Amino acid sequence: MKHAVTYELIHKDKYTGARRGVLHTPHGDVQTPVFMPVGTQATVKAMKPEDVAALGHEGAGIILSNTYHLYLRPGHELVRMAGGLHSFMNWNRAILTDSGGFQVFSLGDLRKITEEGVSFRSYIDGSRHMFTPEKSIEVQNALGADIIMAFDECAPPDSDYKYIKESQARTSRWLRRCKEAHKRPEDQALFGIMQGGFFKDLRQQSADEIVALDLPGYAIGGISVGEPKEKYVGVLDYAVDMLPSDRPRYVMGIGTPDYILEAVEHGVDMFDCVEPTRLARHGMAMTSRGRINIDNAKYFDDFSPVDPECDCYCCRNYSKAYIRHLFKQKSPEILGSMLLAEHNLYFLVRLAEKMRRAIEEDRFMEFKKEFLDSYGSK
RNA sequence: GUGGGUGUCGUCAAGCGGUUAAGACCCUGGGUUGUGGCUCCAGUAUACGAGAGUUCGAAUCUCUCCACCCACC
Question: Does the nearest atom of strand B lie within 7 Å of A262's Cβ?
Answer without folding.
Answer: no
